[in-house]
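User: Reviewer 2 asked us to show a designed sequence for the structure in our supplementary figure. I'm pasting the structure tokens here. Could you produce the per-position amino acids so we can include them in the response letter?
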């Protein structure tokens, strides 16, 4: 049954459009999403982290299946200097207990999206140009962190999801990211079919 459920969920996410019915409306039908691993947080903070993860995945429909296949870990780290941080080598989000603001968590989840789903490879050149960054500027860890393309990308994702940042992300960069996330509305949205677990397997399309 779990195999069928995974197939149904993947099929569903691949079919979901960027407009019309919201992704969050669809996923509630299938009792999604799976919980992420959270360590060291209170029950209330853990619930907040899970809610933010669900909202983030629902907000990036073009890459929802990638994120669900590669969820991050969320680990409490009270003594760190920044409000939050992301370690791509372990897909770990470090957060301060009691400080899980939507902007902060979305910014760090955007780094996870970047590394897990290949934003730099798929979007790097166009994004640098849209943001006015030199084409040969390394994506990550080169010079002051505020100049990294990866940081501008994370802020652009947060802005695309409705948050306001102090970084000066260009409108062109945000628009490019919105398109990559699958948030650009179609002229004639079509509601996707919803397949229910337990439905006749012959009626469920196979994803290769």
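Assistant: Here is a per-position design you can include in the supplement:
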């Amino acid at each position: 049954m779990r195999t069928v459920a995974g197939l149904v969920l993947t099929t569903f996410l691949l079919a979901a459009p960027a407009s019309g019915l919201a992704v969050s409306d669809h996923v509630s039908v299938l009792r999604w999403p799976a919980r992420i691993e959270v360590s060291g947080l209170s029950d209330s903070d853990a619930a907040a982290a899970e809610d933010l993860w669900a909202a983030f995945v629902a907000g990036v429909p073009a890459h929802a299946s990638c994120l669900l296949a590669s969820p991050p870990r969320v680990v409490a780290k009270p003594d760190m200097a920044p409000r939050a941080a992301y370690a791509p080598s372990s897909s770990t989000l470090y957060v301060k207990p009691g400080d899980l603001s939507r902007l902060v968590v979305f910014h760090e989840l955007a780094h996870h999206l970047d590394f897990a789903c290949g934003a730099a490879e798929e979007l790097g050149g166009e994004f640098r140009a849209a943001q006015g960054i030199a084409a040969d500027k390394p994506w990550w860890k080169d010079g002051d962190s505020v100049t990294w393309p990866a940081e501008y990308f994370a802020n652009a994702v947060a802005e695309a999801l409705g948050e306001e940042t102090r970084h000066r992300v260009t409108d062109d960069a945000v628009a490019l990211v919105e398109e990559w996330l699958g948030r650009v509305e179609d002229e004639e949205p079509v509601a996707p079919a919803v397949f229910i677990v337990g439905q006749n397997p012959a009626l469920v399309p196979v994803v290769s």
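For the response letter, you might also mention the following. The longest strand covers residues 73-76. The CA atoms of residues 16 and 55 lie 15 Å apart.
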